[in-house]
Amino acid sequence: MAENKIFAGPRVRRIRNGLGLTQTAMAEALEISPSYLNLIERNQRPLTVQLLLKLAAVYKVDLDELQGEAGGMAGQLREVFGDPLLSGEVPGDQELIEVAEAAPNAAAGVVKLYRAYREQAARLTDLAELLAREGHETSISGARLPIDEVREKFEKRPNFHARIEDAAEAFHASLGLSPGEDLAPALKGWLRTKHGIVVRTLPIHTMPNLRRRYDRHSMRLFLSERLSPFDQLREVAMEAGLLAFGDEIAAELEGLAFSTGEAKRLGRFELARYAAHAVIMPYGAFLAAAQRARYDIDMLRSRFNVSYEQAANRLTMLQRPGASGVPFFMLEVDNAGHRFRKAGAQGFPQAKFGGSCPKLNIHAAFAQPGQVLVDHVEMPDGTGFLTMSRTLDGPQAGFNERVRRTALLVACDIAHREEVVYGQVVAGSTLGPVAVGTACRLCERQGCLARAEPPVTRPLGLDEMVTGLSAFDFQ
């Protein structure tokens, strides 16, 4: 204990003030000088072992309380000052610890106020979604990170970029591949011949925290061996796309009109991923194959030698005027329920579909890894969707690492079920559609066993005499 200096001045001061003592009176009881106690309270002197024992004996103070850090409150303050609205206000954790130590009640008040602010922001978001569903545009928005702006831009527009599609198709044709020839060697050869770039795969211990790195000095593109062959191909195709038709990507980026440089950088990365898919799965060939296979994702992944995620993602891009496919949309979540990717052939249908209902099969997919779960779901307004969900595995994990697994939902309007191979699963079903909603806070379905939050549109129906199936029953 002697080696660990304990600075607990504010806590000593609170004990003294709580007992109504002057510094002189407490110093006399502890057998130290008032000036020394004053230095302790100002954190200019640490508490010694003798003083700790004396405080415990004279004032019945809990030693753990004096020795413990204000880590809990500091952590909560860290959450507050991590908000985009306050980013950069506090340079480090030390100041937060000092605030938590010196004024814990004031710190708790700041945390409570912040959480009330977040709750009101969530309610405003719910209100904006509710109004959008009824056809009213709103300008309600909170403080946003650049990634929030990027996601919003891409989610609201069709997942189709004509300039990139045309350029990617022409570039793929210029490679002169024979039917069935592997694309990866051709792309690597093009990078080496045209730009002097050599692609190398590095072991995990050499590049432990990166999936890719381009070294401009040595003209080498390094890829992590954590990546599957499909993901490595996408990284190579991204690099090739940026070099072969960077002007078209830049033109699409300019049209999105991002407000900050960081948002533009993130948007460029998303467009480069889009371009990679367009190179690997050229529009005309992929659309023809998709229609022949009745949009069977597993058949398409085998045909183009890509991953399930890449083939499913590509299905949402088939919206070329005069040559369009079934308008699919997709949603990806992790097993904690965080939603971090949405896209749609006609924009993600947030107002009609939402994607936040716990009864969607995307959440059940984690219990059956690798299996495709198919459902016919019905919204409160009677709109129906055909949904297909499956888990995706992330980069290769080591023995002592947790596997990264997400789930992908691909869906289309139920009216297209005859065109889609998955529609036959629900065509002969006698069970009827699964009743879902956009989100609990916007859903008014009565007696829902899965309800997690009360709707913002109705008052709670609390009654001592009658209890419903949910803790959030409403009138």
TrEMBL record:
User: Per the record's keyword annotation, is Transferase included, yes or no?
Assistant: no
Q: Which GO terms describe its cellular component?
A: cytosol
PANTHER family, from UniProt? HTH-TYPE TRANSCRIPTIONAL REGULATOR, HTH-TYPE TRANSCRIPTIONAL REGULATOR SUTR
Matches recorded under InterPro entries: Cro/C1-type_HTH (IPR001387), HTH_RamB (IPR026281), IrrE_HExxH (IPR010359), Lambda_DNA-bd_dom_sf (IPR010982), ScfR_C (IPR018653), TransReg_Diox_bact_type (IPR050807)
- HTH cro/C1-type domain segment(s): 12-66
Q: Which family does it belong to?
A: Belongs to the short-chain fatty acyl-CoA assimilation regulator (ScfR) family.
Question: This protein is called what?
Answer: HTH cro/C1-type domain-containing protein
Q: Quick check: keyword Calcium in the entry?
A: no
GO MF terms on file?
Answer: DNA binding; DNA-binding transcription factor activity
Task: Cite the entry's keywords alphabetically.
Answer: DNA-binding, Transcription, Transcription regulation
Name the species this protein comes from. Answer: Ciceribacter selenitireducens ATCC BAA-1503
